TrEMBL record:
CC terms in the record's Gene Ontology section: membrane
Annotated InterPro entries: C-type_lectin-like (IPR001304), C-type_lectin-like/link_sf (IPR016186), CTDL_fold (IPR016187), IDD (IPR042378), VWF_dom (IPR001007)
UniProt name for this protein: IDD protein
Organism name: Cisticola juncidis
Domain C-type lectin, first and last residues per copy: 34-176
SMART domains in the record: CLECT (SM00034), VWC (SM00214)
Pfam families associated with the record: Lectin_C (PF00059)
Gene3D superfamilies: Mannose-Binding Protein A, subunit A
Coiled coil regions in record: none
Amino acid sequence: KENVDSRHNRGGFNVAQPVRFSRKCPTGWHHYEGTASCYRVYLNGENYWDAVQTCQRVNGSLATFTADQELRFILAQEWDLEEQTFVRMDQRRFWVGYQYVITSRNHSLEGHWEVAYKGSSEVFLPPDPIFASAMSEKENVLCAQLQCFHFPTLRHHGLHSWYAENCYEESSFLCKRSQTCVDIKDNIVDEGYYFTPKGNDPCLSCTCHNGEPEMCVAALCERPQGCQQYHKDPKECCKFTCLDP
């Protein structure tokens, strides 16, 4: 690196700098490397079935969790729910991708958790839930709400609860989708397409493969001729604005 820098400083040639890919999720989503997934809380109150459809429209599903580490990641996030009106300000509940199937109504409700949709990867199932509201005798399936807390100390200690709630109650919800390629202008890129990754080099062209930029090729730009002071556009390759009078 020292030799390259010294030659670059003497004006011998231009050097392409390493690029850090800073985004693997669209704006508003949180990335977790452990599962190569993106997560987003939707504040608008929807019943469980509407929440399922909203997640599907963004190529995701209501979140399920593969390991305790993933759940701890979710609990540690600050989800910006100041406008949330469905629960107390110090605690937050989200629909997630589990359902509680009631098998007995003897002295207490008995049943078991199931993943709410087919085709999901291996997941862990929640512990026994808290039953949130009064239910009619006809209800055989309840839907899962994950409760986390606003206060940072409680959040970072992973304090949380699982609720089995009437599926037609309105609540915020947590969507999960695979990480994706995001270009420098924050557009989502489909598998196999060329794109410029979100980062610090607008002259990079890569192929999107499994949500990662691969087979990247860089272009080096000549400085603009006849211009002493100039500004390089951070999002357009080899585009300059001359600042001379």
